Amino acid sequence: MFFLLSKLLLYALLPVGIWLLVRLARRPFWRRRLLWAGLVLFLLGTNNALSNEALLAWELPPAPLRHLAPHDAGVLLTGITQIRKSPHDRVYLGNGADRLTNALWLYRAGRIRRLIISGGSGAVGAVAHTEARDLYTLLRLAGVPAAHILLEERSRNTRENAQLTKALLARHPDIKSLVLITSAFHQRRALGCFRRVGLQPTPWPADFRTTDRQTDPAYWLLPSPVAVGQWLLLAHEVTGYVAYKMLGYC
Q: How do the residues of the chain divide into helix, strand and coil, expressed in percent and rounded to 5?
């Protein structure tokens, strides 16, 4: 039920919000205020420096490779492939591909001995193959032996990633230490979910959507469409984190 609600809630609220704005805009008292509010939102929403600073505060910071001790396995969370794209004889990577490259990097550097890929599909309805299977295909093509890869292909969200990974580990008692590999903006929620089920992975943030702070005036003053995407991403993830907290998932 939670899975379906999380998919439909935004689409249910959007028409209500549009209807409310249209109703208010018809009234002279609100028309000018909405125009000023729209201008302020435009200036703040397209400011690259402000959005970057806000997202920097939310993302878990990167860690130097030398600070990561060897672990038994790395848990690679999915959500970075386009499973609805055909033909289905290949893998289509989308945003967040750094998760995969970081996992492979850690494996090649000897920081993780095995890889656990966790993720079925976040889509409503049947799909040709799971997201975990897509990443398995790419890791095999990169030369990772099949014996070093474990698949969890049933989870549909972050909470289920944690629950089903723990169930998988019950069949592999030799795996004691974990590295959790996911996007930097997603690490807080993912880490909370894994800790909630009794696992204590070491976070390894990847797929950073931020840049280092800059002194270039263009960074602070010029509007940027990238800023809008950063604000939307941050709003989505903070909302998800709060919802998971309220439900006791993380």
A: 55, 15, 35
pLDDT in tens, 126-148: 677 899 999 999 999 999 999 99
Cα separation, 105 vs 74, whole angstroms: 11
Query: How far, in Å, CA of 96 to CA of 93, rounded?
Result: 8
Tokens matching residue 76:
């690679």
pTM: 0.84
Could you tell me if 180 and 204 are in contact, meaning their C-beta atoms sit under 8 angstroms apart?
yes
Task: Give the count of beta carbons closer than 10 Å to the beta carbon of residue 21.
Answer: 12
Residue 195 CB contacts under 8 Å (≥ 6 apart), including other chains: 250
Residue 58 structure tokens? 């939310």
CB atoms within 10 A of CB 72: 16
Copy the structure tokens of residue 2: 């939670």
| Burial of 94 (C-beta count, 10 Å sphere; 0-12/13-18/19+) | exposed
Q: What is the largest CA-CA distance in the chain?
A: 69
Q: Give the span between the Cα atoms of 67 and 243, in whole angstroms.
A: 33
Under 8 Å between Cβ of 240 and 60: no
